[in-house]
Amino acid sequence: MAASLASTLCGIPVSNLFGLASAPRTQTYDQLRRARNAGFGFAECKTIPDQPTPDLSSRYAFSPDEKTMENIEVVYAGDPDGFLRDISVVTAEDESWVVGMSLMARYDQDIWRRHVEKCVWGTGVTGIDPKRGTGVKFIAVNVSCPHGLKNRGMGKAMGLVPEIVADVVRWTQEVVGNMPILVKLTPNGDLDLIVEVARTACKLGAHITAANTMNGVVEFDHSVFPPPPHARGAVPYQWAGGIQDHDRRYIWRSGTLSQRRDLR
Ligand SMILES: Cc1cc2nc3c(=O)[nH]c(=O)nc-3n(C[C@H](O)[C@H](O)[C@H](O)COP(=O)(O)O)c2cc1C
To answer: Can you tell me the distance from the alpha carbon of 11 to that of 195, in angstroms, rounded to the nearest whole number?
Structure first.
């Protein structure tokens, strides 16, 4: 029998489980098409917010050994309607390929539901057939971004409160029916609390995904001032941002282990 990497992701058939997480590599038509052509089993688009967001600069900084990266990139900062059209085109080109919609919105039932309708069914977006929508096959609820938009009560500000996560999962389900929902967890905060958030999401029939970046500041580069990332136009000092890669994994693994024990 020929070997196969085919599997399922939240019950959706995928050619393999190697996929692209929501990040700068999943925010254009070309990037998504290239990911599909390169053989990735799925991609989750860059998180689309319900309101315009700043496009920061500089966004990234690295630890001296370059094993760890810090970013203060917010969420999708371009024209959301154009991006949604791009997603609808790439999903129509190969209906078997899996694209997930990553979104975030303010904690308000009406705003949240309208945003999900727009991102999934293309409601109000010119050029998207409402019968087909954007063609995404799952929704990733971003309640975990540790920096951008927590001032608006979004991202990790939501993911640290189980009751809020329960509400947004329900509101999403009201709009998308049986389409799988992935709650993207935050490793920030007490990892025991995250187990509770995971349990809440699973009880409602959602799936969980681990995990977004962790708050931190990589080492200063004293040869550059202000040391990046520093958000041009704002206070010119280095900002705490989301830590990714190597160092985050040690901590997050402990969260994943606890969840596995708890949800077994
Ligand atoms: C520059 C950058 C931008 C990101 N943007 C998003 C985003 O818009 N939405 C989201 O859910 N996660 C975002 N993430 C988090 C990633 O999807 C991923 O969860 C994180 O990098 C941890 O995985 P890793 O350690 O394998 O990189 C971003 C990460 C980076 C480094």
So the answer is: 22
- Tokens of residue 18, six digits: 């190697």
Number of domains making up the chain: 1
Residue with CA nearest ligand 1 atom 25: 245
Q: Ligand 1 centroid to 180 CA: how many Å?
A: 20
Residue 252: predicted pLDDT: 73
CB 147 within 8 A of CB 241: yes
Instruction: Report helix, strand or coil for 36.
Output: helix
Is 141 among the domain residues?
Answer: yes
**Ligand 1 centroid – CA 67 distance (Å):** 15
Residue 224 maps to a domain: yes
pTM to 2 decimals? 0.94
Whether 121 shows a pLDDT value over 80: the answer reads: yes
- 186 CB under 6 A from ligand 1? no
Beta bridge partner(s), residue 138: 100
Answer whether 27 contacts ligand 1 (Cβ < 6 A). Answer: no
The CA 85 to ligand 1 mean position distance, Å, reads: 23
Per-residue pLDDT tens for 236-245? 677 888 988 7
CATH of the domain at 103: 3.20.20.70
CA terminus-to-terminus distance, the chain:
32
Find the domain containing 148 and state its range. 7-263
- How far is CA 10 from each of CA 114, 200, 254, rounded to the nearest angstrom? 24, 17, 23
CA–centroid distance, 131 to ligand 1, in Å, is: 31
**3-state DSSP of 70-91:** EECCCCCCCCHHHHHHHHHHHH
